[in-house]
Amino acid sequence: MMTEPSSATLSRAQLATLAATGEERTAAAGEVLFRVGDASYPLIAVIEGEVSVSDVNGREVARYGPLAFLGEMDLLSGQTVFATAVASRQLRYVAVESAALRELMSEDGPLSDLLLSTFIARREALQQVPGVGVEVIGTRQGTDTRRILDFARRLGIAFTWRDPDSDDEAARLLSRLAPDEVPLIRVPGGRELRGPTNGELSRALGIGLELEPQEDVDLLIIGAGPAGLGAAVYAASEGLDTLVVERTGLGGQASVSRRIENYLGFPAGISGTELSSRAVAQARKFNARTATPYRALALEPGEDRHVVRLDDDRAVRARAVLIATGADYRRLDVPDLERYEGL
């Protein structure tokens, strides 16, 4: 079973707050509340009864009783569900849909602190459970395999990597594929991707917004680090149609920092994951849209509208463009450097 704060509980007042926002429901023993591969699920706060959560192989990873709540970071990101929840006893609970939950968290600080810190800890714990999340099948030497693994780590996606050099079944699966179909990705729910781009994987998991071939907005922000997300909050809260694009994951480099102690307003420090999650939730509260991973390729200034060309044959026309791309690490000028990255 997961060594994470599955025992985190709500106060009676917090349960009442959730009940006022959500809907009270019941479930019989053995009834499935959500399952691996589902596109979404609500926050579940247990009033009476018990819920068992298991991985794709049916192994129990957590159990929740009265005043406990079910959920992790996929509730806020929209990511495909990685686990299955079943009522192990007659159940009475409160269900709060994700959109309503995000709005509530932006207004109730103590409740937000409890939920968000628990969601983050649960995601980190899930990443340590074998067999949970995305299955990546590819060789250590494969550039595309390392790219996918690095992308998954940056976005905090739980994954299992199967190396054909040490896994006979993985070797057999890859023997049927062409070189450009590697790595083979198995997404929760049964879907398989062959040699996907980062964007294809992201959208298969329900994380990334897929843009139209041409978008028209008031403000386009390039870069979704703290600066870009902060600008999105200010602009969207003033009623501007705001779109944020990012080439990797929301939060930028800050999202992978273990601890940030020089950010205004957090004298005790805050983890990069929590800071990024709070910023994204706040931006979405004001209807700012976020799209990843899209790389900005060119800027074409105009009189009334500026056009930004993105990869994947997308274009955005915006009245204003804010560039918040931040810093990028320098790379050693060494031949075949990418072969040694991620080892």
From TrEMBL:
<dbReference type="InterPro" id="IPR023753">
    <property type="entry name" value="FAD/NAD-binding_dom"/>
</dbReference>
<protein>
    <submittedName>
        <fullName>Thioredoxin reductase</fullName>
        <ecNumber>1.8.1.9</ecNumber>
    </submittedName>
</protein>
<dbReference type="GO" id="GO:0004791">
    <property type="term" value="F:thioredoxin-disulfide reductase (NADPH) activity"/>
</dbReference>
<dbReference type="InterPro" id="IPR050097">
    <property type="entry name" value="Ferredoxin-NADP_redctase_2"/>
</dbReference>
<dbReference type="Pfam" id="PF00027">
    <property type="entry name" value="cNMP_binding"/>
</dbReference>
<keyword id="KW-0285">Flavoprotein</keyword>
<dbReference type="InterPro" id="IPR036188">
    <property type="entry name" value="FAD/NAD-bd_sf"/>
</dbReference>
<dbReference type="InterPro" id="IPR014710">
    <property type="entry name" value="RmlC-like_jellyroll"/>
</dbReference>
<dbReference type="InterPro" id="IPR018490">
    <property type="entry name" value="cNMP-bd_dom_sf"/>
</dbReference>
<dbReference type="Pfam" id="PF07992">
    <property type="entry name" value="Pyr_redox_2"/>
</dbReference>
<feature type="domain" description="Cyclic nucleotide-binding">
    <location>
        <begin position="6"/>
        <end position="122"/>
    </location>
</feature>
<dbReference type="InterPro" id="IPR000595">
    <property type="entry name" value="cNMP-bd_dom"/>
</dbReference>
<keyword id="KW-0560">Oxidoreductase</keyword>
